[in-house]
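Hi there,

I know you've been waiting on this one. I reran it after we fixed the sequence typo, so this is the corrected version. Both the input and the resulting structure follow.
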Amino acid sequence: MARIDPAKRADWSTEMQDFVDGFRSSVASAGPEEGRQAGDNLLGTLARYPSLAMAFLTFNKHLLSGSALTIRQRELLVLRVAHLRRSDYEWAQHVILADRAGITSDEIRRVAIGSDAPQWSPLESALLASVDELLSEGVVRDRTWKVLAAEFDEQKLMDVVFTVGCYSMLAMSLRSFGIEPEDGLRPFLPAAR
């Protein structure tokens, strides 16, 4: 149940409408049809506070379209955050993006198991472990950092931390504001937590 009702697009300021249209068109991973509808409940809620919305979405746009990480790497991070933060909304939205990035249904299910699940590459296992470590301890442990740093440059390493931080904050917001997935999205969080 929504604690903050999403504003209808017709009630948004022209500035907010133009900003969101620009945001959606600049996000590389949004498909033409899905990108038009996905996130309406979130964006409508954020539209209640336009200056915050525009600041947050400007930062989020980097993670969605300017990150040094691959889309697959980003989506593994975001799905793990969504699972650990129990954010049905974030999970439902990012399952779509993960699918577009070529992440299989089996891999999506294994995200819930985490870094110890079989068949992850050492790098992907370290990515998943970094989420657990950042959310539980506030730091990527040395062992995990070494695996990531062996393959990632400084920008990718920074994008790992900022992606986890951003989507953790977003998950908390989604749950606290009671933002519900749009019609047609199936919130599915694997049972094992």
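Quick highlight: The mean pLDDT is 90.

Best,
R. S.
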